[in-house]
Amino acid sequence: MATEARIVTRDDIESKLREIKGEVDTTAASAKPYVIAGAAVAVVVAVGLGYLLGRRRGRKRSTVVEIRRV
Q1: pLDDT tier at 67 (50, 70, 90 boundaries)?
Q2: Is residue 20 classed exposed, middle or buried when 0-12, 13-18 and 19+ CB atoms within 10 A define those classes?
Q3: Cα separation of 50 and 47, whole Å?
Q4: How far apart are CA 18 and CA 37, in angstroms?
Q5: Domain locations in the chain?
Q6: How many helices (H) does the chain have, and how many strands (E)?
Q7: Handedness of CA 30, 35, 40, 44 (dihedral sign)
Q8: pLDDT at 3
Q9: For the stretch 43-59, what's the b/e string if a residue is b when 16 or more beta carbons lie within 10 angstroms of its beta carbon?
Q10: Is the pLDDT of residue 5 over 90?
């Protein structure tokens, strides 16, 4: 398998990097809505979990006052 030695020029490198960057930009643009939706769901779950845990802790720490008539 003989390969011909070829000098890699700056233009070759720049064109390849532009090609790769274009693919990355396309992939990132198509994935952006899913990332935003996932982040929104994660925030809602975190707030709901914090609410439920705080409510439980408040019930455990609240003082019960019993008043009896004599």
Answers
A1: confident
A2: exposed
A3: 5
A4: 29
A5: 32-60
A6: 1, 0
A7: positive
A8: 66
A9: eeeeeeeeeeeeeeeee
A10: no
Q: What is the largest CA-CA distance in the chain?
A: 107
User: Looking at the chain, how many residues does it have?
Assistant: 70
Residue 64: predicted pLDDT = 75
**Locate tokens 């070759």: which residue?**
12
* Residue showing tokens 């914090």: 50
Place of tokens 């890699």: 8
| Sign, Cα dihedral of 6, 10, 15, 20 | positive
